[in-house]
């Protein structure tokens, strides 16, 4: 299961739409490792002078890796996180998460990061089974 959905939020979703804030809070509580990592790269992207920030440190365990995969593999979760943090998220190798400023999404650096070449250059034997 991707998210631990409180009964009240599930009932609200059954009656109609939930707000982004309610959804994102459910993500924050359910996937704390993913939330903290994405929050950190988004903050660095906004505060830095580069057009993006990323993380290259693998998660400490499979549980944390699973959180990250669930957060970024779901269009709804990923979209909610992008709207909440005001960044475009990109993902490689089960752990390399980058947060790009919206103004950088059409940049050479962004296109290089999301390209097949970028993916191939980011491979390593120790990450083969991530």
TrEMBL record:
The lineage of its organism: Bacteria, Bacillati, Actinomycetota, Actinomycetes, Pseudonocardiales. It comes from Kibdelosporangium persicum. This is DUF222 domain-containing protein. Pfam families: KH_NucS_shadow.
């Amino acid at each position: 299961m991707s998210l631990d959905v409180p009964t009240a939020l599930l009932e609200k979703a059954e009656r109609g739409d939930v707000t982004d804030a309610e959804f994102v809070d459910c993500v924050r509580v359910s996937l704390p490792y993913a939330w903290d990592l994405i929050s950190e790269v988004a903050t660095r992207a906004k505060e830095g002078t580069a057009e993006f920030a990323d993380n290259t440190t693998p998660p400490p365990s499979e549980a944390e890796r699973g959180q990250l995969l669930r957060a970024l593999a779901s269009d709804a979760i990923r979209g909610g996180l992008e709207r909440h943090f005001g960044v475009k998220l990109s993902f490689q190798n089960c752990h390399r998460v980058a947060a790009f400023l919206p103004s950088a999404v059409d940049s050479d650096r962004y296109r290089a990061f999301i390209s097949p070449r970028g993916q191939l250059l980011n491979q390593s034997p120790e990450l083969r089974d991530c």
